[in-house]
């Protein structure tokens, strides 16, 4: 089903809710409810019959997908499930509905075999994850009673390496900035005025250059946070993260170690720069302004507000030494996910994964931002734990999205084990 949430008024969204509702009914679910998400697409919640003696486990996922891109580039129809060479192909098979199909199939089997579940299970599928979980905080607040649980577990995303079960106990937040530096009102001749006035392009470049040190680490006091976790990988595995067309300019340090730093620490990147005229024209003027955008992927333990205070203060100190005006605008702010730490659920998940896969799971932080992490922490004051069954070569968001059949089966075995013995 083409449940593309970036497309407005997509009729497939309502059809999908019906489809999931029917499937939930078959899986012995006691109650299914469509949950509104403010002005965004509604999601669906399924609950097993509540038993006061049992703890409640909420399983989170999303039923929306990214657009398939050019369907002609796919080796088969993106909206028809296909099996080839040990992989299931289709848009959403890895990110994320395919993973939840495995959850439901596991529950269906348990119901058929008459095996009782260890938990009251709630399954929440939202429909706006691909547009930044619009309306999710609205939903969490509005349906706080229905969504109440002892444990919040997400099943989404990928293993960090092939056949390496992975648990994410936290995720990065993001502070995204636009910085405008204003110089003289008119462009000035660099021969007559150079040296006499501040050049906004030079000062912006200096400012940006000072945000990180030679090793790429954030150099602004109070911004760099180092969380627990972070898993060193083999250099060759990290290289597999790049596509052949990327021609990446890889850092000179040990890549296996760098990826652990990336998962653990806040990182900073500059995204765009603009000043003066066109570089391919010869023009010797001092530009009137310079603009850049940059962002910080904030590690668990950071707070968007604190990070902003530190960055603002740093900018104020820097530009106060000049006579330039500047504006530093915080465009997007999302807190990182609270680290689950030694949470009981992390332990239970690790046990179940170990048993069903025979491999010791890795516990780390997601180096991207998944809004549900911080929103569950903020609204319910509860940790959120994520397990991903997609593979590094699953082509999420790209052409020929695929999921290894063995990963699908592993997800199913994991859910069975967690719900009956975890
Ligand atoms: Zn996605």
Any chance you could write out the topology, listing elements then pairs?
Blueprint: H1 12-26, E1 31-37, E2 40-47, E3 55-62, E4 82-84, E5 87-89, H2 97-112, E6 119-126, H3 136-142, E7 151-155, E8 166-171, E9 173-182, E10 188-189, H4 190-193, H5 200-209, H6 235-239, H7 255-264, E11 267-275, E12 285-286, E13 289-298, H8 304-320, E14 325-334, H9 344-357, E15 362-366, H10 371-380, E16 384-388, E17 402-404, H11 405-421
Parallel strand pairs: 3-6, 3-7, 7-16, 8-15
Antiparallel strand pairs: 1-2, 2-6, 4-5, 5-17, 8-16, 9-13, 9-14, 10-12, 11-13
Helix pairs in contact: 2-11, 3-10, 9-11
Bound molecules: zinc ion.
What does this structure look like?
This protein is of the alpha+beta class and 422 residues long. It has two domains: 12-171 and 337-421, Zn peptidases (Aminopeptidase, 3-Layer(aba) Sandwich); 174-227 and 265-334, Alpha-Beta Plaits, CATH 3.30.70. It is 30% helix and 25% strand. It has helices at residues 12-26, 97-112, 136-142, 190-193, 200-209, 235-239, 255-264, 304-320, 344-357, 371-380, 405-421, and strands at 31-37, 40-47, 55-62, 82-84, 87-89, 119-126, 151-155, 166-171, 173-182, 188-189, 267-275, 285-286, 289-298, 325-334, 362-366, 384-388, 402-404. Helix 2 (97-112) crosses helix 11, helix 3 (136-142) packs parallel to helix 10 (371-380) and helix 9 (344-357) crosses helix 11 (405-421). The protein binds zinc ion. Zinc ion (ZN) binds at residues 66, 95, 130, 396-397. Residues 66, 95, 130, 396-397 line the site of zinc ion.
């Amino acid at each position: 089903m083409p449940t593309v949430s970036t497309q407005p008024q997509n009729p497939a969204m309502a059809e999908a809710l019906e489809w999931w509702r029917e499937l939930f009914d078959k899986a012995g679910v006691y109650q299914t409810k469509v949950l509104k998400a403010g002005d965004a697409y509604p999601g669906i919640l399924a609950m097993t019959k509540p038993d006061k003696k049992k703890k409640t486990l909420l399983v989170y996922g999303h039923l929306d997908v990214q657009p398939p891109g050019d369907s002609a580039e796919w080796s088969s129809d993106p909206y028809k499930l296909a099996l080839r060479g040990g992989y299931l192909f289709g848009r959403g098979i890895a990110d994320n509905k395919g993973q939840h199909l495995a959850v439901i199939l596991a529950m269906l089997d348990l119901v058929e075999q008459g095996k009782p579940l260890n938990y009251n299970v709630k399954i929440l599928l939202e429909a706006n994850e691909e547009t930044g979980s619009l309306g999710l905080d609205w939903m969490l607040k509005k349906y706080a009673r229905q969504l109440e649980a002892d444990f919040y577990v997400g099943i989404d995303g990928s293993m960090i390496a092939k056949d390496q079960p992975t648990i994410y106990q936290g995720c990065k937040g993001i502070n995204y900035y636009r910085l405008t530096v204003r110089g003289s009102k008119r462009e000035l001749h660099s021969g007559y005025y150079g040296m006499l006035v501040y050049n906004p392009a030079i000062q912006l470049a200096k400012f940006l250059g000072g945000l990180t040190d030679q090793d790429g680490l954030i150099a602004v006091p109070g911004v760099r946070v180092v969380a627990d976790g972070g898993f060193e990988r083999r250099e060759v595995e990290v290289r597999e993260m790049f596509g052949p067309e990327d021609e990446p300019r890889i850092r000179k340090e040990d890549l296996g170690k760098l990826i652990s730093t990336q998962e653990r620490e806040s990182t900073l990147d500059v995204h765009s720069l603009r000043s003066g005229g066109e570089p391919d024209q010869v023009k010797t003027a001092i530009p009137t302004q310079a603009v850049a955008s940059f962002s910080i992927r904030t590690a668990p333990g950071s707070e968007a507000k604190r990070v902003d205070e530190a960055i603002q203060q740093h900018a104020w100190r820097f530009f106060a030494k000049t006579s330039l005006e500047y504006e530093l605008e915080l465009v997007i702010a999302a807190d990182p996910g609270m680290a689950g730490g030694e949470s009981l659920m992390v332990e239970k998940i690790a046990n179940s994964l170990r048993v069903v896969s025979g491999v010791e799971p890795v516990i780390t932080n997601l180096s991207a931002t998944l809004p549900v992490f911080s929103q569950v922490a903020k609204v319910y004051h509860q940790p959120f734990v994520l397990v991903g069954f997609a593979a590094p070569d699953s082509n999420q968001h790209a052409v020929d999205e695929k999921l290894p059949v063995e990963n699908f089966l592993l997800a199913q075995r994991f859910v069975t084990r967690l719900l009956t013995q975890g």
